[in-house]
């Protein structure tokens, strides 16, 4: 019998200089998601990347245990959260961005902005039309994102320099965040070498663009740590634990889709397409997209405050008798 894949204890790498961050990686087993808390060691300013909101599809219940763990960790370290960073609109988990922002606004001098790449607006419009989401629920000031980064835009987390790196392919809006020059938080673009790369079959996805994004990552300094958004160790692989990062060098030497001497661009596009055609849709797809285009906020209640908040779920296989 295959041994279960077990998450390690929360992974922490402490800063080795004033220009490198403290990094806390927290794994969410139900969604196989890595969440990150990144802090400037000098000022204790910090950012949260891709936080998870707990959702039980059986009971349709949303809870905040995972997000509260992030808050507790930040409080224990006396960090002040300056940014909540999303790499893209996720299809496999609900974002806790809006919940965290609301909680932090009560405990900090200022409310941290929810941030993403500027192309996220085209993804929001697409899924808003698909799920009939009113514009005021996914656009500021009531919904959506507070700050949209341009490609290669720099910003600061305390004294740390951070760069918004456009890594399209999985989605057209996808960003990675290069923080402190030595750590790339790659979201769902590259996974670990034994997995390869992310799927490209969502609207706006492109295997050609993902190939180019992969080459951009592999062109970074070899010792750069690439922190993944998820980990799904292959059942036939040798790993028994999920891990949050590997280096660019390890990707160059062993990434099954992108390593040096591996598949050509044309072969990658063919292999990626064949693989994607065999994948099912993510378990939380429809709920996740409707919450995430809103920046983690819920739909307006039906019938006023106190009413039910409803999300749309498509039905397949029926027919009309009209």
From TrEMBL:
Residues 32-230 form the Metallo-beta-lactamase domain. This is Metallo-beta-lactamase superfamily protein. One of its GO terms (molecular function) is metal ion binding. Pfam families: Lactamase_B. PANTHER family: PERSULFIDE DIOXYGENASE ETHE1, PERSULFIDE DIOXYGENASE ETHE1, MITOCHONDRIAL. GO terms for biological process: glutathione metabolic process; hydrogen sulfide metabolic process. It comes from the Eukaryota. Keywords: Metal-binding. SUPFAM superfamilies: Metallo-hydrolase/oxidoreductase (SSF56281).
């Amino acid at each position: 019998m295959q041994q279960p894949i077990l998450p390690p204890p929360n992974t922490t790498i402490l800063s080795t200089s004033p220009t490198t961050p403290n990094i806390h990686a927290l794994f969410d087993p139900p969604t196989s998601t890595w969440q990150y808390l990144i802090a400037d060691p000098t000022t204790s300013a910090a950012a949260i990347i891709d936080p998870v909101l707990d959702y039980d599809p059986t009971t349709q219940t949303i809870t905040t245990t995972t997000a509260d763990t992030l808050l507790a960790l930040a409080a224990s370290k006396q960090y002040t959260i300056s940014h909540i960073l999303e790499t893209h609109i996720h299809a496999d988990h609900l974002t806790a961005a809006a919940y965290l922002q609301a909680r932090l606004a009560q405990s900090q001098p200022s409310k941290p902005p929810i941030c993403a790449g500027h192309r996220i607006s085209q993804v929001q419009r697409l899924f808003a039309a698909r799920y009939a989401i009113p514009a005021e629920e996914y656009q500021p000031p009531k919904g959506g994102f507070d700050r949209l980064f341009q490609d290669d835009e720099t910003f600061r987390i305390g004294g740390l320099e951070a760069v918004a790196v456009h890594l399209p392919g999985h989605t057209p809006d996808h960003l990675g965040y290069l923080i402190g020059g030595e750590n790339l938080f790659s979201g769902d673009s590259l996974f670990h070498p034994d997995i390869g790369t992310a799927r490209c079959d969502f609207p706006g996805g492109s295997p050609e663009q993902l190939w180019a994004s992969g080459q951009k990552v592999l062109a970074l300094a070899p010792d750069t740590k690439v922190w993944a958004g998820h980990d799904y160790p292959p059942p036939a692989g040798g790993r028994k634990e999920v891990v949050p990062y590997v280096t660019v060098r390890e990707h160059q030497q062993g990434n099954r889709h992108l390593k040096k001497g591996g598949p050509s661009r044309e072969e990658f596009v063919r292999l990626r397409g064949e693989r994607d055609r065999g994948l099912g849709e993510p378990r939380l797809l429809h709920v996740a997209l409707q919450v995430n285009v809103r920046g983690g906020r819920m739909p307006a209640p039906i019938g006023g405050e106190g009413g039910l908040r409803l999300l749309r779920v498509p039905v397949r296989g029926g027919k009309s008798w009209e």
